[in-house]
């Protein structure tokens, strides 16, 4: 053993060495910082030419993303237990060793105490020359490692009974309680240690709870330790000994504290909250046995119940205990979210099943943003589709929108989650649902996850099925329109109209959609025909008034016969005809015509105002050309009246003429919307639009000829001014050519050069405009008509869908009395009751006339593909999958399909088969061509050899 003097010298040298080392490290660190600061201040890195940011062209800002930021990100505020200081043996041991090292003490002393090399008899010799702080640390160390035999000796050597380590403020009694060292605690208490001593954060009772030292805790309680004394933390977290025991999952200590009367209910974050949050099920079980335990108490800041915290952590066992003790599964936090929101967000199937089953949680509970648990279930987890299925099967509505109008399908599509989109569509989510900004889920699906839409086409196929009737021994074709009508009552084609608007027009060719459109048109066409009839009466009344009162000035002639000049009298009213005499002698007839016209116009105004309710906005209403035309005609009725001054004027004639033209043109467009005439009007409008484009493209050429003819033929009335000249050019486009303008009959003015230039210009006009341009227009028209003929069926369905949708918006906008609405539901709806959505037809019965033969034939083909199969969806653990089982086989024969759409696979395989067949035919054609070429070459070589032999001879 070294002498005490040597121990002192060694300690001094060790202290000087460590001081010099720390100073050297500090100087080096300061020098490095100075060099780096100077380097960054004096040098600047040149721009990297390969930087991608320097290669972009600045053409304005990018358009905003489809996603709405921070709307669907559920950032749940987690309680503060993650930041609370925890006590464990390793932490305490490390703190004491670091404390000894920081004060430049001898760590060897602590090692010797642990190894037993220092005992009571030789303690004085071992600590000879030691500083008091080393003795104090050794005193704490002895209490930690249960060397109670050294405590008294160290106290005699000068150790402080109440000394505590600086990190957590733990004294000897704290450490002895943590290690359940009853002997050490008895000694320390006997020496005067305070059992409620709180040096920094914890009392000895808290430490006993952290160490699961039930005996030590009971010892302290019996010695006067306050069982509900709170900790003192820099994080402002106040916890009792019961909290500490739960945090350390000290089951024995929790049980003892509850038996000793510890308060399980805490004003803010109780021990029950903490146990549920940490998932300590055994601790929670003992806490719930306490008399004052409350399962529905809420935290102050976030209003979390223990069930919220258990769901947030995914602790199913804790959830089950809370539910069995009567916890309310529909309690809401500060955001209005229930535990079901948290369970759906954490993707925990067990927690979700408990809440929906035993807890009877409301699957459609809305938070303050009107989001349901189904919104929270949308995520990238492999279990998301399973969670969605579980929620919907338990009654969750997949079409509930939040405060922004976003349904779960919008959220899934915006995030690009194809599995979630397919699951939602499979279980009835409305793909036509719109947000408040007018964005449909279908539009997002088309851009983000287009392949997921094949799930809907699969549902359409499944809605067509074949059934054998045993009673009549007939085959029955069943068409279930629920897929289309489930979300649109009473607007039965809103879904199909949205498909058209979003670019999925080809879906209308599906026999289920075609059948619905046919049945719907059978119901609603009488209303459209009545509308056409009424509008025809309106336009005919207007035409009659304009012809009689305005066109021939008969009203003015009858009212002011003596004042009219003979040259102002039109021929009709001047002739001795019966009509002329009636109009001339009885202007009252014309007045009655106008009043009748006003009455009809008033009905038309009421009809237009009623139809206004079928549009979302006034801007949308006037975006349709037919509405602008009809309102213009209505206004013209009052503009061309004689009632204001008692006579008519010439300018009213022109307004009346345009009104008549617009009215009869609108009748043509209305008739063109009928399925039987739709293709013809479509051809006309298509050619008309192409002709307008052609005129716009060649407008420079036409203007050039217009001005040239004004210069070359100044004396011609057809080219007197540019406006008349342009009209003449347009007439000449049709082939109405006038050669008289090229002949000069005045022999006194023979400008041969001018005549030659006129003839050349005229010939160029005939060739380039009349022949080339008009033939080009004819060719374009023929090509467009052929294209329309190819898509005639689809175009007809599209027009029919738009027309029926327009009629439904006008009929069911809510403005009619209830009695009329009931009558409309019966007469205009295919399914007056939402429950009646199935149509049964007999495809093999020749007397079946409820649907066209072609639709029945197409539906029969679809049903044959689905024959003997009934679909059922299940979500395995690997992800979303679909399982099909045969009805004929009583044994479940499952066939698992992967996540890719079956329809897309079949379509792709069909395309590949067509390509293979095409290549096979091409190879065969090439082979035949090669064989023919080979025979030709052989014949050629044979003839060549014969010629050579003949030349040699």
From TrEMBL:
**Cellular component terms (Gene Ontology):** cation channel complex
Write down the PROSITE patterns for this protein, in alphabetical order. Answer: ANK_REP_REGION, ANK_REPEAT
Q: Which Gene3D superfamilies match?
A: Ankyrin repeat-containing domain (1.25.40.20)
The record's principal subcellular location, in a coarse class, is membrane
Q: Which UniProt keywords apply?
A: ANK repeat, Glycoprotein, Ion channel, Ion transport, Membrane, Repeat, Sensory transduction, Transmembrane, Transmembrane helix, Transport
Instruction: Spell out the residue ranges that the record assigns to ANK repeats.
Output: 168-200, 200-232, 237-269, 302-334, 335-360, 369-403, 404-436
Single GO MF annotation: monoatomic ion channel activity
Q: Which Pfam families match?
A: Ank_2, Ank_5, Ion_trans
The record's InterPro entries line, in alphabetical order, gives: Ankyrin_rpt, Ankyrin_rpt-contain_sf, Ion_trans_dom, TRP_cation_channel
> Where does the Ion transport domain start and stop, copy by copy?
590-791
Q: How does it sit in the membrane?
A: Multi-pass membrane protein
Q: Superkingdom, according to UniProt? A: Eukaryota
State the compartments where it is located. Answer: Membrane
What stretches pass through the bilayer? 528-551, 627-645, 657-682, 694-714, 760-782
- What protein name applies here? Ion transport domain-containing protein
High-level lineage: Eukaryota, Metazoa, Ecdysozoa, Arthropoda, Hexapoda
């Amino acid at each position: 053993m070294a002498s005490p003097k040597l121990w002192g010298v060694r300690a001094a040298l060790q202290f000087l060495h460590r001081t010099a080392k720390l100073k050297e490290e500090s100087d080096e660190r300061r020098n490095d910082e100075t060099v780096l600061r100077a380097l960054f201040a004096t040098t600047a890195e040149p721009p990297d030419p390969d930087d991608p940011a320097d290669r972009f062209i600045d053409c304005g800002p990018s358009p905003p993303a489809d996603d709405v930021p921070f709307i669907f990100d559920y950032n749940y505020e987690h309680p503060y237990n993650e930041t609370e200081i925890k006590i464990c043996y390793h932490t305490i041991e490390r703190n004491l060793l670091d404390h000894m090292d920081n004060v430049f003490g001898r760590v060897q002393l602590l090692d010797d105490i642990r190894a037993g090399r220092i005992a009571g008899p030789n303690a004085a010799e071992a600590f000879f020359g030691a500083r008091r702080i080393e003795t104090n640390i050794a005193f704490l160390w002895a209490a930690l490692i249960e060397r109670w035999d050294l405590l008294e000796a160290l106290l005699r050597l000068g150790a402080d009974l109440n000394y505590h380590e600086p990190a957590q403020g733990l004294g000897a009694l704290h450490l002895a309680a943590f290690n359940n060292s009853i002997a050490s605690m008895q000694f320390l208490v006997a020496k005067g240690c305070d059992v409620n001593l709180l040096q920094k954060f914890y009392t000895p009772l808290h430490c006993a709870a952290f160490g699961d030292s039930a005996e030590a805790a009971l010892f302290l309680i019996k010695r006067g330790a306050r069982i509900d004394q709170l900790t003192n933390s820099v994080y402002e977290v106040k916890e009792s000994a019961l909290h500490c025991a739960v945090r350390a999952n000290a089951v024995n200590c929790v049980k003892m504290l509850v038996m000793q009367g510890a308060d399980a209910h805490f004003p803010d974050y109780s021990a029950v909250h903490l146990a549920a949050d940490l998932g300590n099920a055994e601790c929670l079980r003992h806490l719930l046995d306490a008399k004052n335990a409350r399962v529905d108490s809420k935290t102050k800041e976030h209003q979390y119940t223990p069930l919220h915290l258990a769901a947030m952590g995914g602790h199913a066992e804790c959830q089950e205990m809370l539910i069995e003790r009567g916890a309310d599964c529909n309690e809401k936090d500060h955001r209005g979210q229930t535990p079901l929101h948290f369970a759906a967000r954490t993707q925990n199937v067990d927690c979700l099943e408990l809440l929906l089953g035993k807890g009877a949680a409301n699957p459609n509970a809305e938070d303050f943003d009107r989001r349901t648990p189904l919104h929270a279930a949308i995520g990238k987890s492999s279990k998301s589709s399973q969670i969605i299925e579980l929620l919907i099967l338990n009654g969750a509505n997949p079409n509930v929108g939040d405060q922004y109008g976003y349904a779960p399908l919008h959220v899934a599509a915006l995030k690009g989650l194809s599995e979630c989109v397919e699951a939602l569509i499979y279980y009835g989510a409305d793909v036509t649902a719109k947000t408040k900004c007018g964005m449909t889920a279908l539009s997002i699906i088309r851009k983000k996850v287009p392949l997921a839409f094949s799930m809907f086409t699969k549902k359409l196929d499944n809605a067509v099925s074949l059934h054998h009737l045993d009673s009549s021994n007939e085959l029955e074709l069943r068409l279930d329109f629920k897929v289309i009508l489930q979300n649109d009552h009473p607007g039965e084609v809103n879904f199909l109209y949205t498909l058209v608007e979003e670019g999925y027009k080809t879906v209308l060719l599906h026999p289920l959609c075609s059948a619905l459109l046919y049945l719907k048109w059978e119901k609603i066409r009488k209303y459209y025909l009545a509308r056409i009839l009424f509008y025809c009466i309106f336009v005919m009344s207007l035409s009659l008034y304009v012809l009689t009162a305005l066109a021939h000035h008969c009203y003015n002639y009858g009212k002011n016969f003596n004042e009219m000049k003979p040259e102002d009298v039109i021929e009709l009213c001047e002739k001795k005809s019966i009509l002329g005499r009636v109009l001339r002698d009885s202007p009252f007839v014309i007045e009655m015509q106008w009043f009748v016209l006003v009455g009809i116009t008033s009905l038309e105004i009421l009809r237009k105002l009623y139809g206004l309710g079928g549009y979302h906005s006034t801007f949308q209403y006037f975006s349709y050309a037919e509405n602008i035309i009809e309102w213009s005609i209505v206004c013209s009725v009052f503009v061309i009246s004689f009632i204001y001054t008692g006579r008519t004027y010439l300018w009213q004639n022109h307004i009346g003429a345009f009104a008549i033209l617009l009215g009869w043109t609108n009748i043509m467009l209305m008739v063109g919307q009928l399925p039987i005439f739709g293709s013809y009007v479509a051809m006309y409008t298509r050619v008309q639009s192409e002709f307008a484009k052609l005129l716009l493209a060649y407008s420079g050429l036409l203007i050039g000829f217009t001005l040239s003819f004004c210069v070359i033929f100044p004396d011609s009335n057809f080219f007197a001014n540019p406006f008349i000249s342009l009209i003449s050019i347009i007439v000449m486009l049709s082939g109405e050519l006038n050669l008289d303008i090229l002949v000069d009959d005045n022999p006194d003015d023979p400008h041969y050069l001018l005549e030659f230039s006129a003839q050349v210009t005229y010939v160029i006009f005939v060739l380039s405009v009349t022949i080339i341009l008009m033939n080009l227009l004819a060719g374009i028209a023929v090509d467009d008509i052929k294209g329309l003929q190819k898509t005639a069926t689809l175009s007809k369905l599209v027009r029919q869908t738009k027309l029926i949708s327009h009629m439904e918006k006008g009929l069911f906008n809510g403005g009619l009395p209830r009695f009329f609405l009931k009558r409309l539901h019966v007469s205009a709806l295919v399914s007056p009751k939402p429950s009646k959505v199935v149509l049964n037809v007999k495809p093999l019965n020749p007397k079946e006339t409820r649907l066209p033969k072609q639709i029945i034939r197409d539906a029969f083909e679809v049903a044959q593909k689905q024959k003997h199969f009934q679909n059922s969806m299940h979500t395995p653990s690997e992800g979303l999958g679909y399982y099909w089982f045969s009805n004929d086989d009583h044994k479940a024969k499952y066939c698992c399909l992967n996540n890719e759409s079956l329809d897309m696979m079949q379509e792709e395989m069909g395309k590949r088969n067509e390509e293979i067949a095409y290549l096979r035919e091409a190879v065969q054609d090439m082979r035949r061509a090669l064989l023919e070429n080979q025979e030709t070459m052989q014949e050629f070589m044979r003839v060549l050899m014969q010629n050579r032999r003949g030349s040699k001879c």
